[in-house]
Amino acid sequence: MMDTQQLLAEYARTGSEAAFRELVARYINFVYSVALRLVGGDTQLAEDVTQTVFIALASKGRALSRGVMLGGWLHQCTYHVATRAMRGERRRQSREREAVEMNTLRDDSGASLRQVAPILDEAITQLGSGDRAAILLRYFEQRDFRSVGEALGTTEDAARMRVNRALEKLHSLLTHRGVTTSAAALGVALSADAVQAAPAGLAATVSTAVLAGTTAATTTAATITKAIAMTTLQKAIIGAALAAAVGTGIYEARQAAALRSQVQTLQQHQAPLTEQLQQLQRERDDAAKQLAALSTKPTARVPSSSATNSPVAKSPYEQLEEFLTSRLAPSREEIEAATRNNDKLASSHALSREEIDAFLQQNRRNAESLLAAYRISYDQSYLREVATNFPNTPFVQFAVIADKVFPEDQRKWIDAFKASSPDNALAWYFSALFKTA
User: Which residue of 29, 219, 238, 260 is 20 to 30 Å from 185, comparing CA positions?
Assistant: First the structure.
């Protein structure tokens, strides 16, 4: 049969349910007895404390070092959990009442452990780690001196002396609390009544509850209710989960209603924007026709004086317009033919990749020049480059969204456009279109 340390190591290494169930079976009486004493004999609360302790073992057992003494760890954990559960009741107990109750003890071997139960486990926690381990191994885990010596790394005789010294220290602590029994009578009482049998079936209930919680996190509350006996702590946990779920549903419903209202508002603004866009397109066409008509008339050129006027730096758009005018300007015959046929002028020339790159090099490949190159060539590599190098520029964001260069990141670009231009109605228009798509 595997000893306790081997079972703990097996559970820490593989998460074995069989190893955990065996640990629960070995220590269930131990933990329940400590809890029962600490909660003043309330069996229901003692079961809750016992289950909480083994839940803590399941979650922290894999992190325990190999040298830890499991009995001592369980006793400390049980004490802290039960103390928190009983802190209200502990405040109402007075030291004078404890002293009166302790004075009823008699110095005989048949003294009952129930008379020192309220302060026994608290006194044990005040012992040093070595003395506490000796007491727990001998009287709570009910091992013989040879087994105690092996657990403490000493001989059988050294273990006997260690247990006797620890018992004397425990007796001294109890004496300061008003207990009048002798150390020998205390040892007899601990040997007889320190560990009591837990209720039948509690080990199976605890194992099932803990393992179900660690291996089936998505099991519904109704299934848990049918599988195990619901304790007070479980009812509180399930109630909190249901309250959180209801609150989340209400919050999401309010958010959805607010978003629907925003979409309706943006859709109301869409019609005027569309009409404005159509009006601008008509004005653009009229201007193009007027430009074509005026281009047939000679215009006087006023020479500029370099002595009086200093040169003004041209923007990349102006440079590109001048460059295109020199390369792509139609002949007079082409303008007259287009005017007669009411056709749009078309260029018979196209810029080469080398010419566009020379233009970009001249303008240091800034955002305006890259965007102009894309509008002339419709080569999306220029638009991707300007999007990569100038992602926070509003007109670059607009171009990326309008041409859907990155469809998988459309939402991100729309949010960036809204952040950089919060007063621009087009940003909110794009956002509304994306949500309703």
Answer: 29
